[in-house]
Structures are given as structure tokens and as C-alpha cells.
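Q: I'm writing a short explainer about Glutamate synthase [NADPH] small chain for a general audience and would like to include a description of its predicted shape. Could you first generate the structure from this sequence?
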Amino acid sequence: MAGQKMLKFVDVERDMPEKRPPNLRKEDFGEIYAEYATAKAAEQASRCSQCGVPYCQSHCPLHNNIPDWLRMTAEGRLEEAYELSQATNTFPEICGRICPQDRLCEGNCVIEQSGHGTVTIGSVEKYITDTAFENGWVKPIKPHTERAESVGIIGAGPGGLAAADILRRRGVQVTVYDRYDRGGGLLTYGIPGFKLEKDIVMQRMQQLEDGGVEFVLNCDVGDDLSFDAIRGKHEAVLIATGVYKTRGLEAPGVGAEGIVRAIDYLTASNRKSFGDVVEEFESGELNATGKKVVVIGGGDTAMDCVRTAIRQGAESVKCLYRRDEANMPGSMREVQNAKEEGVEFVWLSAPKGFTGDKVEGVMVQKMRLGAPDASGRQMPELIEGSDYIEDADLVVQALGFEPEDIPTLWNVPELEVTRWGTIKAEFTTGQTSLEGVFAAGDIVRGASLVVWAIKDGRDAAEAILEYVNQGAAVAAE
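A: Of course. Here's the predicted structure. Afterward I'll give you a sentence or two in plain language.
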């Protein structure tokens, strides 16, 4: 009986997939977690309590039907588990690897609240879809009926690709435009291989391409091709560019050689993993080998940078963050992994400036946490007279991302934006101020999680389908 295979959280302890030892994993960019064996995946899935109100599902942005595919995994019905997982999530094998499950599904697991340790939802999700690819259960995209209408998608990141998948399955002709030479956006060039190996992204890119999605790469909209030209070619357009403008520091010496942006640093490293020739890496500009590295920031991008520097053979790697560990915005799991690999965290510290024309050190101000701000977080306050200099040969700024000025860059001043520079779009549909133009992902909500971009892309695709259906109906009259 199905019930006998579940509710084993009292007898079976939580057990993550084996993690490679730090001394081995920091020598390469391979993923640090091994794959579950079939029996282990079934065992861990069987710990699910099948609760009446699944908080794991309600706290997942995609509202994945987690309890049901856990039950199917426990029962050995893996192909069905994959089909159910794929029904709500375009890229479950990616979310299983990089979602902050400790803040989302697993962090709200009922048995975690009762002290038994959460179900390892992310690891099971990853296992299900990896198994599906290995067994040929991931079918090519084959629409039942081809349609004449076409949609242009600007941005080949998770939001744009999720929308492309939905639209193509419904027979719409889809063209995706992207500034880079490979699709995937930050999945390809922003997230290091030790969290997401690149063949995982490329196999989804291949599935979309084989399914009839056209990719126009190395295409910088506004320079190589105008936004008006894209609008003129398609019945509808989706803007899913993400946010790539780096939040910079304003401090004395910030222009010194050796102070770089996180996105440039991570892109160079990921290009190397593809075997590309990267001049900035070879010259040492974006290479941490033998250097004293200081990363400024406390989010997941900062964790990606410090752990990349360790693997590049840095002499030392320190992370400066102006609040304490409890208030760090990044995943606690990633912080722990970084500590194991030899990263030193310097809490309650903020940069005041930099020394040297070629950076030699970071002038650090020590902080303490004061009264809460409007969001409830304690505000950092300076401790007078506590300044000191932290030696550094390479400083990586990982302070987050902001939207580019798209109306100006694309010469489309009538495209409305918010006071933060994000595109103003309807909450559920993604419809912008321009007829037939939609927007989704970080360019609407600001820098956020991959899983939210997937959710937004899927929602926008449904709204676009409704829009093109209305247009088709009018044309038929």
C-alpha cells in the first residue's frame, strides 16, 4: 500500500547525498554533491509525512506538487514522478541544484518544524530529472499543431527560456535573442559549475533548439538589432533580460586596477570551464591564482565568488559583510560550504576605500548593529576609530545588480519603468505599457531567484498565448 511507504520520518533519519570532502572539491569546478542511488532516493522520499496542508508546496514559487512526486519516488514510480515534477517546473533539475531550499520548501517542511529534520526535497527533485534524462523520459518538444503567430523573447535566461518552452509546446513560433554567445543567461555564465555543471544547462538548450526554438545569439538589442525591428517581426515580444548592471561602491580608490565586478569575474571563470580563450583570465585581471582576494558582499553571488577564488588557487580569500552572519542574505548552506573550503568571513565590516593605484588593500570600517530599519533589520552603525587595512591583490564587488536603462538603450522612451528602473508590468500577466510587449523575471521584480524567473516566464507565456489568441480571433472575423 502507498501509505506503508510513507511517513517514515520517525524511523529514517534525514540523509543528504554524499558531499565531496573540501580538500578534493576545491581542486575543481565539479558539483560538490553526489547523486542519490535509487534506493536512497526512495528512502529519503519516504520520510515525507504527506501532510494535509503541504507548506513545502505553498512556499515554493512554482507551487510544485512536492508531496505527490515524493510519494511516487518512494514507490519506485520515477517516470510518473518526473512527469508530475515537469508539469509545474520547466527546469526541475536546475532548481533541485540551485534553489535555496533551506529558505523555501525544505525550510517550511512540517517534519522539520517537529524536530525530525526536513525531507531532502531538492536532492530528490534533482535525482528524478537526472534519471529522466538518462532513461530518455524527457521527450522532444512536439506541438500538436503549428501556429503562424510568432513571439520574440529578449533574454535567454531562466525566465525567457521558461516562456519559450511553454509557447513552443503550444505551437507558437519562438525566436530568442540574447547578447551572449550561449543561451542560459546567469545559469550559464553567472553560476559556477560546482553548483550547476554546464552540461545540465546545455542539455535543456538543446531540447529547446531541437523543439524548434530559434536562437539569435551575440545579439545586443539596441546596437546589433533595434527593439522596433523585433516588435515589427513578431505578434508579441517578451522582455526577459534580467538585471546585469552591477551596484558599485563609491569610495576613494575604487577605480584602482584589481577591483573588479562579480559578473565579470564569474563570467570569465565559467568561460574557462567551456574551454574558451579568455584574455582577462590569462592576463591575471580576472584570475585569483596566488592572490589575496577580498570579496565585498553577503549574498549568493558573493558566495559564488569566494568559492571560485578558492578553486582558482588564491593565497587567501576573505568575505567582508557589513552585518553579522545571522543577517546575511545568502543561503546558509552556501556559507557553510564556503567555510569548509577555507573562506574567512569578516563580519560587521564595510569598505571605506582602497589603497594603491594597483589595489594593495581595503580600508575597512568595523560596524555594529543598531536600531531596526523600516524592514525590521538592524541597521549597521560605524564604530569610530576601529578602521584598519585588509591586504588585497584582487577585490571583487558583489553588492547586487540593478536594471539597465532599457528605454534609453533601446530608444523606446514610451516603455514605462518604476522608480527603481525595473520595467513596469502587470502583476500576473507581465503586460507592459506597450501594446503586445510583456516583461518577466528580474527586469520586473529586481534581482531575485531563478525559481521566481521561471514562474514569471511561465505566467507571461500564458498571458501572451491569450493575447495572440485574441489577435487570431480578430483576424479570422
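A: For your explainer, you could say: The two ends are 55 Å apart (CA to CA).
Q: Perfect, that's easy to follow.
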